């Protein structure tokens, strides 16, 4: 990390927005002044750009920290805000989704059509007995029905839990159980890398033999036919979307729900083996998702074509595919597949074809395009792009410069946006028409957001120093808790700086001489691989769940393309070691983790070692393993129970 910091600190390039961009930008410098003058009034004003069935009179109730309530006596319907109100305002013919499947099939869906589909789907869900507060799991490819499903659940005041389609049946099952989902919405499969990736079979497996597990809560599975792969069918439980939804009535009244009505649960990795169900509610979440999309992505709904490349299985897909852009009435591209199928220029072909004006993606994607070379994007006309965004992990200055030059035609501003599943929406970012940007820095808190960088005791470190990122005041789209575990919520985020009442984000950060923020990665056992959060402990428990493994330790090692990579060190049981060759075992364990958690968690390297470095109290010293994984000289080993262990491990790894 230290070489990275040194490198960042020598970065002194600056890019001001062009006068034309600044003149037309929605986010202006006045916003900061307004928010500084009266933070709550500022957020109230943003909230009022939504439609409230019952206007709120109270902005923030922070009487029981850390449990915040925003706009608490107001009532709204989230789906109405994303759909009906645009149709009622005369924009029903505007395209909401420019969808493209991986094989090249296309659909253009207007706001009127999407509203119609969501109303029908809402009627179907209600017909299946789903009501206010019930949980619905969504396990789908990136197809329009996925967005429609989320909105249909929101429309009836139920709670969705979207589970990324790349997760395994096991991961799906534990999330369905934790939330007690009543219905699962899925598809037969989706297209990924030119093949059908089956989804319904994974749902069947998750809902299959439960052994001694908790009782089944799922009553129905609603299935979109996408790929036509063979699926097994349970007549009592399973329903085809294409049978039920078109046949349902297109009349559905969007009833108002309280601002604090839960909207969704989204599972994310923490520092323990068990994923946390992050809970978000309605009014505050939608306010900040819409506001940030408007001012950070500079959305002009009548002229822009926005494309956020995230999957709806992640928070970025929730806030900047479904809720933010649709609340703003924007037109956006939705793409089912991978960036390199059927050819490595696929994304740029889509930018050209749909005249995308704003692209929002992750540094890992940019770095892999960079590796392939500029010749590929140069084959396409990318002149429509006027703004670029980055999210999910720190973006290194080289990738930032490449993004600007090669994709952004040397003119498009880049907004590097820092936020988390927990924060619900962007927190730290440049405003594209205001901020002079610096390659590699996320820079400044948005208007209405209060952050700081502090030391371990909560003291401000001041400009020129590094420390821990904290959020010092509640914000509208903040998580309201962890599903079913209020204690873990308090413990994970609020205990560390209890005295000051700060939210602890888990990220290291540094303030430069101008007070701009540079993010330095996680300070806990959470890894960030290709912008996806993974827990070291979760992968370790998957590994030790394999019968060949006696012990396992996992670290995130820096990786040129993916930011970090999963590197695991395992001790194999004697009996297995004798009977199997190590390479075969390593390969087996890689796929094992893929089956247990999902392909994204598969270790890049599996090192079979004889011992793990432990302190006298038995704690694994991951820091030392990270040194080995990154090919560095091993650091201070004096606190190890057996100081010779590291040289043995280093030798085994080579
Ligand atoms: C990291 C994704 C540096 C950070 C929206 C955070 C970033 C975690 C940035 C949250 C950024 C996200 N610069 N680091 N612009 N954006 N991160 O919950 O470590 O999937 O804590 O939310 O990603 O990941 P999550």
From TrEMBL:
CoA binds at residues 192-195, 316, 530. InterPro entries: Ac_CoA_lig, ACAS_N, AMP-bd_C, AMP-bd_C_sf, AMP-binding_CS, AMP-dep_synth/lig_dom, ANL_N_sf. Its cofactor is Mg(2+). Gene3D superfamilies: 3.30.300.30, N-terminal domain of ligase-like. Residues 89-483 form the AMP-dependent synthetase/ligase domain. Residues 29-82 form the Acetyl-coenzyme A synthetase N-terminal domain. Its EC number is 6.2.1.1. Acetylated. Deacetylation by the SIR2-homolog deacetylase activates the enzyme. It holds the Pfam family AMP-binding. The keyword Transport does not apply. GO terms for molecular function: acetate-CoA ligase activity; AMP binding; ATP binding; metal ion binding. The modification N6-acetyllysine is found at residue 619. ATP binds at residues 392-394, 416-421, 507, 522, 533. One of its GO terms (cellular component) is cytosol. HAMAP family: Ac_CoA_synth. Catalyzes the conversion of acetate into acetyl-CoA (AcCoA), an essential intermediate at the junction of anabolic and catabolic pathways. AcsA undergoes a two-step reaction. In the first half reaction, AcsA combines acetate with ATP to form acetyl-adenylate (AcAMP) intermediate. In the second half reaction, it can then transfer the acetyl group from AcAMP to the sulfhydryl group of CoA, forming the product AcCoA. Belongs to the ATP-dependent AMP-binding enzyme family. This is Acetyl-coenzyme A synthetase. It comes from Microbacterium aurum.
């Amino acid at each position: 990390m230290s070489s990275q910091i040194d490198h960042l600190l020598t970065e002194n390039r600056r890019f001001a927005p062009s006068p034309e961009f600044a003149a037309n930008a929605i986010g202006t410098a006045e916003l900061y002044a307004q928010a500084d003058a009266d933070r709550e009034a500022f957020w109230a004003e943003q909230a009022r750009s939504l439609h409230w069935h019952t206007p709120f009179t109270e902005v923030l109730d922070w009487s029981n920290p850390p449990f915040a309530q925003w706009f608490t006596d107001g009532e709204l319907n989230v789906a109405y805000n994303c759909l009906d109100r645009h149709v009622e305002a005369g924009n029903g013919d505007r395209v909401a989704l420019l969808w493209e499947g991986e094989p090249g099939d296309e659909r253009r869906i207007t706001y009127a059509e999407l509203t119609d589909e969501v109303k029908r789907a809402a009627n179907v869900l209600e017909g299946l007995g789903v009501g206010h507060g019930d949980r619905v799991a969504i396990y789908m490819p990136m197809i329009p029905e996925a967005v429609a499903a989320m909105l249909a659940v929101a429309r009836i005041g139920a709670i969705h839990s979207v589970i990324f389609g790349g997760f395994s049946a096991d991961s799906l099952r534990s999330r369905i159980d934790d939330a007690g989902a009543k219905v699962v919405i899925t598809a037969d499969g989706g297209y990924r890398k030119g093949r059908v990736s089956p989804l319904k079979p994974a749902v069947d497996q998750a809902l299959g033999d439960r052994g001694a597990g908790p009782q089944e809560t799922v009553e129905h599975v609603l299935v979109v036919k996408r790929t036509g792969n063979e699926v097994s069918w349970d007549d009592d439980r399973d329903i085809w979307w294409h049978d039920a939804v078109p046949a349902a009535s297109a009349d559905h009244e969007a009833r108002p729900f309280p601002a604090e009505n839960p909207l969704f649960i989204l599972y994310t990795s923490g520092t323990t083996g068990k994923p946390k169900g992050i809970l978000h509610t309605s009014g505050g979440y939608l306010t900040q998702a819409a506001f940030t999309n408007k001012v950070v992505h500079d959305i002009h709904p009548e002229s822009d074509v926005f494309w956020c490349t995230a999957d709806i299985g992640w928070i970025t897909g929730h806030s900047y595919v479904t809720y933010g852009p649709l609340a703003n009435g924007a037109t956006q591209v939705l793409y089912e597949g991978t960036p390199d199928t059927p050819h490595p220029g696929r994304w740029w072909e889509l930018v050209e074809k749909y005249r995308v004006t704003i692209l929002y993606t992750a540094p890992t994607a940019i770095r892999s395009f960079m590796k392939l070379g500029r010749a590929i994007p140069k084959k396409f006309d990318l002149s429509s792009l006027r703004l670029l965004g980055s999210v999910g992990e720190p973006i290194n200055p080289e990738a930032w410069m490449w993004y600007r030059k090669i994709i952004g035609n040397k003119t498009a501003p880049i907004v590097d946006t820092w936020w988390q599943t927990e924060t619900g929406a962007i927190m730290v970012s440049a405003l594209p028409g205001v901020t002079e940007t610096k390659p590699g820095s996320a820079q400044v808190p948005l208007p209405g957001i209060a952050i700081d960088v502090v030391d371990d005791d909560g003291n401000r470190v001041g400009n020129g120093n590094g420390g821990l990122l904290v959020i010092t005041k509640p914000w509208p789209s903040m998580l309201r808790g962890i599903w079913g575990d209020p204690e873990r919520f308090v413990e994970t985020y609020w205990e560390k700086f209890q005295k000051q009442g700060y939210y602890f984000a888990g990220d290291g950060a540094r303030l430069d001489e101008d007070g701009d923020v540079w993010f330095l990665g996680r300070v806990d056992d959470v890894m960030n691989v290709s912008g996806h959060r993974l827990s070291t402990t979760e992968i370790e428990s998957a590994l030790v769940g394999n019968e060949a493994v006696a012990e396992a330790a996992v670290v995130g090692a820096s990786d040129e393309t993916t930011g970090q990579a999963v590197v695991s060190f395992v001790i194999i049981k004697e009996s297995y070691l004798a009977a199997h060759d190590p390479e075969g075992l390593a390969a087996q364990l890689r796929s094992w983790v893929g089956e247990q958690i999902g392909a994204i968690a598969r270790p890049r390297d599996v090192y079979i070692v004889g011992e793990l470095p432990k302190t006298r109290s038995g704690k694994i010293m991951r820091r030392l393993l990270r040194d080995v994984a990154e090919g560095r000289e091993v650091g201070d080993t004096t606190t190890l129970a057996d100081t010779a262990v590291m040289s043995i491990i280093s030798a085994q790894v080579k």
